[in-house]
User: What shape does this take?
Amino acid sequence: MKNNRHSLIAVIAIVVSLQTWAQTVSFDTFTLSPNSYYQDNSGADFSSNGVTFQYDWNSSWNIWESGSAYTNVNDTVNGTYTNLYGCITGTAFSGNNYATVQSGAKVIFSNTTTAVSGFYITNTTYAWKEIKKGGYGRKFGDTTGTGSGASIPQGEYPDWFKVLVRGFRGGNLTNDSVQFFLADFRGTGTINDYVVKNWQYVNCLALGQVDSIQFIMKSSDNNSFGMKTPAFFSIDNLTTVSTVDINEIESLVDMKLQPNPAKEIINLNLLSKSTQILSIVLTDISGKELEIKNIQINSGRSQESLDIQNLDGGIYFLTVTDGASFKKIKFIKL
Assistant: This one.
């Protein structure tokens, strides 16, 4: 079964140098009666620990129109639009409350020197049931309703459902984004197909310093009106860290990566003022840790080679840390 498990080791290795402070929004600072959710007919946003979640209510239609809403709904049975707030796990990742988020929702940080460590994510009951059984949207992996007339073996239609996390700095969209698949049927056969039904961690450090983020949902199941898969997901324990005291490794005079782009081997060339022990962390564009390697380098020039021939083509990052600060390089695998 495919999995998007994101090791906390990667977070520890990279974030050690960032943790002047860390704040976690668990949504348990908000008071809710059992099996209920946030509703404000004036459309007021809500905030916790310097993090503001945008919220919009359409008073004409009397519906939650956009943004995020904190909730503790535990309904894992009702897979219709009348259960917009419940997550498929039935409980928060920790504590009592979590949040359900619509596509397009924005989260704003009062501290403009913020990086998002990450958050926990799962499917809503509504989306999970639609993906597994169909309804307005298609049953993932089925061959009906494709609209293409293509002959595809039963259970092998390459459906997918994902969340894109986009970062903004100074009101401008940054170049980096993080994606997480809530369902993925793109692999050959059915053994690798999955629909997320538990809480999983999304590492967002690749976004860098941001003052806001936005969640965009996409699916393989669309029509002329837009996405047919319910555009909702649930999150918990969103953690931010300050980037005020980030310093690059002072004793590391220079760091270069060659070749870049690369196909099989990359060479990390270092120029150091002193002998020291460093950790090299290889991550993909989503922040998922792929390899951690500890090395000792001497004063002067040294080179460390890494075999990348088994990586898929795409964008990756190498972070070198001494446990107090770090340097980071982006490279392309051909």
Observations:
- The CA atoms of residues 76 and 132 lie 13 Å apart.
- The radius of gyration is 22 Å.
- The first helix runs from residue 8 to 15.
- The helical segments are 8-15, 125-133.
